[in-house]
Design goal:
- The chain is α/β, with parallel strands linked by helices and about 350 residues long.
- The chain has one domain: NADP-dependent oxidoreductase domain (TIM Barrel).
- The protein contains 11 helices and 12 strands.
- The strands form 3 sheets. Strands 3-12-11-10-9-8-5-4 form an 8-stranded parallel sheet. A two-stranded antiparallel ribbon has the order 1-2.
- The radius of gyration is 19 Å and the shape is globular.
- The mean pLDDT is about 95.
């Protein structure tokens, strides 16, 4: 059995070589030495139940069969069930001959979540599982739901690895870090980000993650001066202070679609749109809400048109689409599959 624990240059190239005859030339995108698909499979939506778990597992199998090798989860998605469904799907893929080194797997931490189901009293649950467990104090939890405390992040990384059944997670994001700015001033926020980066750099050194990123909603699209605004250059400089020139901050994620075009068009980052600023800083960009969680996809033709608009924005790496249905994966793959 292979001892490879993460996506690799050779493995991801091998994956796309198998699909070269059926994929358009612009489908393969580069993250360092890795070859990533221009469309990725997300796992945010749908109920936390067994039937949906089974559909996600089938969706992953279909995605891999069609040439999609980017899988995106978060520990809070569907109360950890999305990660677990992905883990089962990856084990099935391995049994079918798809190597661990061929697939890029991402997850996220930041928001407080549950285990399998939502408890009747969330605050009591968090008191027991987080505060009493010594992972964070309530003074380290922002907006009543978000935490970047070092002990909490380290525990979340370990839990995500167990859920996914992976020794190494290829991309580990801080999930909507701008949520911290609801409660704390910017100097406190930056101190918390520094401490979070230190955890991620240690996890990277230990092989628990390969690289890390920032998965945002408002932060990178908000103009300077807005309360939730994130300055990308500042956050990259902070990563460099913590991890040196070889730091692991390599990926960002932000919404991008025809209804939310700011990442491609609004000058929110030093007078540039996010995609241009990320390019100059050497960061790979993934879009979330690529078809506005289905709102831009009333029919298959509309879905493909909306997704292709996002996928082809200059500077974008991978357009993520959350779907638990294999038939929707088929539709999405139509944007890069040759007729």
């Amino acid at each position: 059995m292979s001892d490879v624990t993460r996506a690799t240059r050779d493995g991801t190239a091998r994956f796309h070589a198998r699909h070269a005859g059926s994929s358009n030339a612009d489908h393969v995108r580069r993250l360092g030495g890795l070859s990533l698909s221009s469309v990725g499979l997300g796992s945010y939506l749908a109920p936390p139940d067994d039937a949906t778990d089974a559909r996600y597992e089938a969706a992953v199998q279909r995605a891999l069969a069609l040439g999609i090798n980017v899988l995106d989860a978060a520990i809070v998605y569907r109360n950890q069930r999305s990660e677990r469904a992905f883990g089962r799907a990856l084990r099935a893929a391995a049994a079918a001959g798809i190597g661990r080194d061929e697939v890029v797997v991402a997850s996220k931490a930041g928001f407080l979540g549950f285990d399998g189901h939502r408890p009747p009293d969330p605050r009591a649950y968090w008191q027991t599982s987080i505060v009493d467990a010594g992972l964070a104090g309530w003074d380290e939890i922002a907006a009543g739901c978000h935490c970047l405390a070092p002990r909490y992040l380290a525990e979340r990384i370990a839990r995500s690895r167990a859920n996914l059944g992976l020794a190494t997670i290829d991309i580990y994001y801080l999930h909507n870090p701008e949520t911290q700015l609801d409660d704390v001033d910017r100097p406190t926020f930056l101190r918390r980000m520094r401490a979070a980066y230190e955890v991620l750099e240690r996890a990277r050194a230990d092989g628990a993650i390969a690289r890390y990123g920032l998965a945002t909603w408002f932060g990178l699209r908000e103009p300077p001066g807005a309360k939730a605004h994130l300055d990308l250059a500042e956050l990259v400089a902070l990563a460099r202070e913590v991890g040196g020139d070889g730091h692991g901050l390599e990926v960002i994620q932000a919404p991008l679609n025809r209804s939310l075009p700011e990442a491609a068009e609004a000058p929110t980052q030093g007078g540039q749109p996010l995609l241009a600023a990320a390019r100059d800083l050497g960061l790979y960009v993934m879009s979330s809400a690529s078809i506005m969680q289905g709102k831009l996809a009333p029919d298959p033709a509309s879905a493909r048109a909306a997704l292709d608009w996002t996928r082809t924005r200059p500077g974008l790496g991978t357009a993520l689409v959350g779907t638990s249905r294999a038939e929707h994966v088929e539709i999405n793959a139509g944007v890069f599959r040759r007729a």
